[in-house]
């Protein structure tokens, strides 16, 4: 099964390369791109302050201090996102979604999470797609955003007892999970622990614990996952080898080898269906409403724009993809990995001959080494991509197209309607 999954991913990667050159001609002949709703992760950042404290305590040594403040988008990260945004702007102009020059109000609307790294990522994306145009990045004031930061809103809070039970159910035999992941654990330990220092943390049994706020997590695994993410981001940042795991990591293959710990942590946190339903339903519902806007029903609480660009966090993407029942394995990554600057995209296409509308759903991102090398995205270096599909979809030159109504119905099946409240997009 695993071999078959990798074969499928490889075929999709090859198809994505061919799709880049064939898309424009086929779109002009048969299909018209009408709408794009995109949910992007922020770009490269150093560890957040809390994560730095945890990983330094677990390894008994200080980790590299970056030139950028902890948790904020780096200059390298900004440049990498500009590369992606530049390609997207050119791509959507070729497909006729956008026109040349600076965008009109109906062309694009950008909304970012309130944090610096997401706001700066949004600015980088539009700087790449619309250089010199000063496209506005919208956000709510303060730290509580009903679209992205849902913990502060009663309708989206999880019940502590239910969440704990659901995480335990997803974890199953936690000791067996820990044992199965020992190759990744030991590879990580070898990279970050000194031979002459105690690293007992790596051998402690994993346990499910619950914070005072009610959030359940796997004690032991979550800190290891933060180490892996910090190393991955350091590799993407092009940190000198001497500053990345003290010279113990010299290739992206070594990053790939420890990524299973990050996948395991996703599996027992944001990918738990109950958690995703409570905290991600409002975002997925907004995305589906956006992609249907002007077709099936009016949507008054969001801008009528051709490209709705939402910039948030990997946790947001994880919860949305869980509700969608959509997973991916990009080359060089593990299942469900969400690289910095990657995005989940919903495109609405119209058959110009029949008038029938379709949904094209995919996840895309750059490779570990392309992010490190600031590789420009082009036909020779396309974004890695994997598509969502169901039985009634059709494979075309513009991608796998699924009938709009049945696709939206399938993608919305896990929404918690009680957790959905109106979201104001337009800001004062």
Kindly describe this structure.
The chain has 428 residues and is α+β, with helices and mostly antiparallel strands. The protein has 14 helices and ten strands. α2 crosses α8.
Q: Radius of gyration, Cα only, in angstroms?
A: 21 Å
SS-derived structural category: alpha+beta
Name the overall outline: globular
Mean pLDDT: 91
- The N- and C-terminal alpha carbons lie at a distance of 52 Å
Instruction: Report the helical percentage.
Output: 40-55%
Count of helical stretches: 14
DSSP E strands, number: 10
Note the topology:
Blueprint (H helix, E strand, L loop, with lengths): L1 H28 L1 E11 L7 H11 L15 H20 L13 E5 L3 H14 L30 H12 L2 H7 L1 H11 L14 E4 L5 E4 L1 H16 L15 H7 L1 H8 L5 H20 L14 E6 L1 H11 L18 E9 L5 E9 L2 H5 L11 E4 L6 E3 L2 E5 H8 L17
Parallel strand pairs: 1-5, 2-5
Antiparallel strand pairs: 1-6, 3-4, 6-7, 7-8, 7-10, 9-10
Helix pairs in contact: 2-8, 3-4, 8-10, 11-12
List keywords for this structure.
about 425 residues; 8-stranded mixed beta sheet; two-stranded antiparallel ribbon; about 40% helix; globular; disordered N terminus
Short description:
With 428 residues, this protein is of the alpha+beta class. The protein has helices spanning 2-29, 49-59, 75-94, 116-129, 160-171, 174-180, 182-192, 221-236, 252-258, 260-267, 273-292, 314-324, 368-372, 404-411; strands spanning 31-41, 108-112, 207-210, 216-219, 307-312, 343-351, 357-365, 384-387, 394-396, 399-403.
